[in-house]
């Protein structure tokens, strides 16, 4: 909803789909100037969907594809870019930079041409890296909220700000519950997906501490005791964040 609202305020008309397979099906019909691609989706992930789109004939296979993801891990980013992306943005998204990239990539004079192997030169990248130390330092040093990010969000979405902020508690608690349950049942795939999703939600709403802790919980190789300690820290941070957003 946030991305759709932002695109509308930028003057674009956008359609949303819920998984990578639907993205490929929509792209195959043509008519799109650009595709914003989530990299972690059910049914088919963003990298696989991008590769499928690049195999489409004609202009449908050459449409610019821009990644929007909470995944800032370097080797993941490189692997995603090799799927044929034209740009890569990590959350929280710099909306001005994204707007400039959209203009550049949709200009008839600057749309990159396929090199015959589904690759496009000179992708645009926006990297945000979270530096995290020991948990105690993390909780002491990181603020609950990025007030600059919240003000940017308010300015960006205007009258929809309260609606957007109102979405955060339920979304965050839903992903926290999914993450906790997945860890309890040793379901690493679901745990990683829930942590990744919550990290992206937190980043979009400036919940700095929640974002950093979920970044750590994406590592599903942590010892169970460490993961449970982080879950406790995450619950505390989320409760405090919701009070601060009040």
Characteristics:
7% strand, 56% helix, 2 domains, Four Helix Bundle (Hemerythrin (Met), subunit A), four-stranded parallel β-sheet
Overview of this structure, please?
The structure is a single chain. By secondary structure, the protein is of the alpha/beta class. The protein has two domains: 125 residues, Rossmann fold (3-Layer(aba) Sandwich), CATH 3.40.50; 111 residues, HPT domain (Four Helix Bundle (Hemerythrin (Met), subunit A)). It is 56% helix and 7% strand. Strands 1-2-3-4 form a four-stranded parallel sheet, sandwiched between helices. The longest helix has 24 residues. About 11% of the residues have low confidence.
Count of discrete domains: 2
Strand order of the largest sheet: 1-2-3-4
The largest sheet, given as strand count, sense and whether it forms a barrel, is:
4 strands, parallel
Oligomer: single chain
Beta-strand percent range: 5-15%
List low-pLDDT spans. Answer: 109-122, 125-138
CATH superfamily caption of the largest domain: Response regulator
Structural class: alpha/beta
Shape: globular
Number of strands: 4
CATH class of the largest domain: Alpha Beta
What is the fold named in CATH at topology level of the largest domain? Rossmann fold
State the distance separating the first and last CA atoms. Answer: 21 Å
Indicate the radius of gyration in whole angstroms: 18 Å
- State the helicity in percent bands: 55-70%
